[in-house]
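Hi again,

Forgot to attach this to my earlier email, sorry! This is the prediction with nicotinamide-adenine-dinucleotide bound. I've pasted everything inline since the attachment limit keeps bouncing my files.
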Amino acid sequence: MVFDHPEFDGHQQVTFVSDDDTGLEAIVAIHHLRGPSAGGGVRFRPYATVDDALTDVLRLSRAMTYKMVLAGLRMGGAKSVIIGDPATDKTPALLQAFGRFIASLDGRYTAGPDVGTNADDMEILAEVTEHVAGRASGAGSTAPPTAVGVFNGIRATAAAAYGRETLDGRRVAVQGAGGVGSHLVGHLVEAGADVVVADVDPAKAEAVAERHGATVVGPDEILSAEVDILSPNAVGGVLDADTIPTIRATAICGGANNQLARSADGVALAERGILWAPDYVVSAGGAIAGSCELGFLTETQRDAMLDAIFSTTLDVLTEAISSQRPTDDVARDRVRALLAEERSETAST
Ligand SMILES: NC(=O)c1ccc[n+]([C@@H]2O[C@H](COP(=O)([O-])OP(=O)(O)OC[C@H]3O[C@@H](n4cnc5c(N)ncnc54)[C@H](O)[C@@H]3O)[C@@H](O)[C@H]2O)c1
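Structure tokens for the complex follow:
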């Protein structure tokens, strides 16, 4: 029963979508409706079980609400997953069938790219629904603005952890040399950081290292690299009971969604004295750019919101340090307080 699922967390709508003609099997989760729509990417992955897909979409969708609220965006949080291997199962007909379902939601859900989908796929969805951002003919990939936001988050993390935001001479380990990781490495090197990078696809890591002047290490070495800051930008769940004891960095800040395998891992990081910038605080750049593409923000507002990731991250981390609480708890409390404030404002108007 979906209502009893441990990650359900009051989701407002969860829909299982299938289409026999194209083989589409998908789940769309709308965590919280707010403003003109609830936004979140379309993840295309070969999940082992439908329950794995459901768990992922519920966690991702809730994190989108947190991301929207903390970034100051007047949108709700949602996410969708398509179950399958994007390399073999992703066809224009399947994407259009999914797009028709999004159209039937009449604006409640706005899609964007995520792991396994890209700006060209969003173009195909847009043939049948207007509720799509991150299109090739629109703002394009959301990875570059996400990387800008993560870079601002890393500067704030350095300020909170070491008392100065400059990255000159700071050692940073970047896990994942995909859309976000590759742009992030460029910003870090430009800021004077000494960067090591890893990807399960070694050719990607080597190309990024060569382009920007970074050093490649193996994917098994990156989480325990001897650096100041670790930046996960690959997959979720990388911070767990096995990896946390091996981490040598003193701070962590990256764009990968849902980095904690369980919320207790946030406590374990705090107990080890590792300052973790919650992913949903720093990875809002794509959502911010998508909102601008949809006309909900001006370019000036977009740029101001990307810049504000610095101050929001610094505020959360500073409060966590001074109150000696896990950063995840501080950030979640902020989301709850902002939503409660919003509800009381709505009630009084
Ligand atoms: N693109 C966005 O706008 C955006 C926005 C917010 C959050 N995120 C999150 O950031 C992360 C990266 O997104 P992306 O768009 O760059 O995805 P991507 O698919 O372009 O890149 C991910 C990279 O990680 C590599 N990888 C996978 N597992 C790995 C491992 N164990 N070790 C090292 N490398 C590994 C992949 O080979 C790939 O190159 C994802 O978790 C995504 O959900 C992305």
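The longest helix spans residues 299-323. The chain is about 45% helix and 15% strand.

That should be everything now.

G.
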